[in-house]
From TrEMBL:
GO biological process, one term: nuclear-transcribed mRNA catabolic process
Cellular localization per UniProt: Cytoplasm
GO cellular component, one term: cytoplasm
Top-level lineage group: Eukaryota
Signal is among the record's keywords: no
Region forming the signal peptide: none
Record protein name field: RNA uridylyltransferase
A molecular function (GO) term: metal ion binding
Full protein stretch here: 439 to 773 of 776
Main location class: cytoplasm
PAP-associated domain segment(s): 237-296
Family assignment from sequence similarity: Belongs to the DNA polymerase type-B-like family.
Keywords, comma-separated and alphabetical: Cytoplasm, Magnesium, Metal-binding, Transferase
Amino acid sequence: RYMKRQVACRGDIDSLNAPMLAIYESLIPAEEEMAKQKQLLALLEKIVCKEWPEARLYLYGSCANSFGFSKSDIDVCLTIADADTNKSEVLLKLADLLQLENLQNVQALTRARVPIVKLMDPVTGISGDICINNVLAVVNTKLLRDYACIDVRLRQLAFIVKHWAKSRGVNETYQGTLSSYAYVLMCIHFLQQRRPAILPCLQGMKTTYCVNVDNIECAYFDQVENLFGFGSHNGESIAQLIWGFFSYWAYCHDYANDVISVRTGTILSKRTKDWTRRIGNDRHLICIEDPFELSHDLGRVVDKYSIRVLREEFERAAEIMQYDPNPCVKLFEPY
Ligand code: 3AT
Ligand code: MG
């Protein structure tokens, strides 16, 4: 395997456990915030079902995948039969209904890549987006949430990585860096690859959950309560894992040839995916396979400029975790 550099981690790495966990704790949303999100969802359900009785609403994204910070917006998916032909009409109608019920800042963005209605609820103070029939996102939200139940170190690692990415300005897909969804997949993959493994590969196990979404079969083992303690043979601490994550992306990942794949729990080659050359806007400079939409590379937003920014940030983070006297401050310094 390709190894640019392999270093042993600093001797005092475990002194970083407590301060890193304190940062994690400070980012977790409080119970009452989750209750308010549920309250807003119930209000939206009431409004929607008056007009479309058979429609359903689902929370997805960080408010439902257990990787959400406190004070995040909520992402809601409206499922409704036959809306795909006239999504814009449904969104405009929905925007009218919301306005009539006194929701604020209501705006239908019908031409966006993922068309949505934006809203703010003056009662709870929560903002959110509603999209239509984006069922794959609802299913990948469940997959992430199920992984998070298996070992708490996933949630801790992903919170720190997301916090780092937001602080350093590398969580902006419109600027060619990666989505939060991509970072969480990178964390899951990383924990699947530890030896002993900290996470299993749920899609490689017996199917206990199966749905067909837009002709994609989404099947995996979702009885995760039976997997509690799976990673207990691996005693690595959160500080060691944060160090390992950044070192992996700074020095060990083979950007020229490798695709990380949560679906298989392994690394695939770009050649087998036919991701070796630029097609249209997809450059495949860092490759992260979507667990269900297999032709979808979450790294496709990355261009030849932003790949440099990303790799420099991974190297900066790895160096800080290795040598800096105060990594818990330095890692998250605004760029
Ligand atoms: P934040 O806390 O809002 O940063 P998030 O988990 O809500 O993180 P995103 O806003 O990036 O993540 O995306 C919202 C959800 O939409 C997450 C995932 O279920 C889905 N999603 C996002 N990007 C993709 C993608 N490229 N392909 C498939 N699903 C995606
Ligand atoms: Mg979000």
